[in-house]
Structures are given as C-alpha cells and as structure tokens.
Amino acid sequence: MKEEACILIIDDESSMLNEFENVFTKEGYQVRKAQTWPEAYEYLKNQKFNVVITDVDMPDVDYQQAIKEIKSADKTTYVITSAGYSEIDKAMESLNHGAQNYISKPFDPIDIIASIRRVIEKQKLQSDNVQLFDTIKALALALDARDHYTHGHSQEVTDYAVAIAGDMDLALEDIERIRDAGMLHDIGKIGIRDEVLLKPGRLTEEEYTQIKKHPEIGRKILEPVRSLADKIPLIYHHHERFDGHGYPEGLAGDNIPLGARILSVADAYQAMTSDRPYRKALPQEVAISELNKGRDKQFDSRIVDIFIDVLKKNKV
Length: 316
Ligand SMILES: [Fe+2]
Fold this sequence. Notes:
316 residues, Hypothetical protein af1432, alpha/beta, Rossmann fold, binds fe (ii) ion, 14 helices, five-stranded parallel sheet
C-alpha cells in the first residue's frame, strides 16, 4: 500500500533533499533523507526501503559501492541514481552497476511520481505472488505430511531436480521454475480420495485410473494463479514417459518440457529409495540400475546420466 511505501533520498545538497521530500510526502510516501553516506547507511541497516534515490556524486562514497550496499541491505529495493546535467553519463552508466533507473536534476515531479507509483505497484504484486506461492507450497507440504510414506517427498524430489538442473547449467530462472514445480508437482493428489491415495496395498485398475488424474487436477487447481503459469506445464507433464507411453498426454522425447523430464527422474528415484507400505526402500545401486533400465523408455537418458553422476559425486 502506498502509505507503507518508504523512500530514501541520498543527496549532499539539502535543497535537493527537500524538493524530493515535498513531492513524495504529498503523495503519501514515507520519506527519509540522508545528506551523507554514513547517515544513509544507518537507515539502510535499520529499515526496508521500496525505493532509494541516490546522487551519483556523493563526496564520501563511490556510487557503485553505494548501489552494492543498498542492494545487499535488501535486493528488492529499487535503486534510482540522480545526477545533474554534467554527470548524466555517470548516471546512465550506473544502470550497468545495479541501478534500475536514473533521473536528471532538476527533475520533473510528474514524471518521477508516475514511475515510482509503477515501481511500488509492481513490488506489491511480486510480494503478493511470493505469499500466494508460500501458501500453496504449505498445502503441498501438508498433503505429503498426511501420509507417513510420502512425508518429505516433494522437498526431496525438488532437491534432486534442482541438483540435476544445476549440473546442466540451466539458467537461474529455469532452475527456479523447476524448484517451484517440484514443490507443487503432486498438488493434484488433493483431489484423490483418501482410500485410494492412502491405500497400503496394490491398486486396482480403477484406482490407478483415479491416481493418474492428479496431474490434470493439479493443473486445474493452479490455473487461476497467474504467476504459476510457467510452472504448470512441468507439473502437468511430470508423468509423461520418454517413449510416449506416459500420461496425461502421451507426449514423447523433446516434446515433454525439459523440466518435466527432470522431475520425472527425480520423482522415480525418490519413490524407489523410500519405504512403501508393500516394500522397503531400495538401496541406491538398485534404484540406479532401475533408472538405467528406463533409459529412453521411461526417462530421457541424458538426464539419467547427469543424475547418476550427481549422485555419485554426492552432490545431493
Ligand atoms: Fe506425481
């Protein structure tokens, strides 16, 4: 909310500080002013700021260092550098050092207010998304915890999948997508009847058909959450097989999203190496040989190789 948003202004000219303060307090933002870097640093240690506007030409700190310190106090803080006409090159250059925007002084209050409003709205949306994700994740963990045998399943599958993705040198955002999808991959089991989901013995064909609906149920549960859109394909396809004989769509090979192929290997290994009502956990060597048997049938062999390598190097 606007009234909770805090802005820190760092500038050695007090007239400039007052000008900024006037504009922002009129908008209802909380404003802190620092005329020296030590003063600013004191604020940063004690308070979270949505936005920091820092002069590129402070006498007691290099602006690159200042940006670094602001970001390490809170990486979600939006950093704007400010500069007079003669220093504008420096301000532009600051975008390469972690600043997200710059303004030239004297500034236009209308412009700056419009852009600060957008920034703060976006931050609010992101923090709502994080909270929403945490809530859904808590549900997934609660689902695992109901069954002694699947307790910790989602977390372990996620750890394995992230280790594989890391070893493949995937981009950070792809790894994060896999992490989130890993935590939620079985969320659709919420929609499966307890006597089927928690049944200790072998499943009948009809019961197995029920279980096989969980990727579709998961997709339906998560679809209304816009911020999860890019994770849903991984969740929906985590039971596809590389040879095309899996479910729900029977996709094959590279048509299965990479993240779903990774989750599939991680999921199978975790299931094999944990106790089940009808069998004890398989030893690691047996589980590995099962993964090898599934090469190009159930699993993408490239991912099997990477995972075995990761396990042997004890990276998980
Ligand atoms: Fe599953």
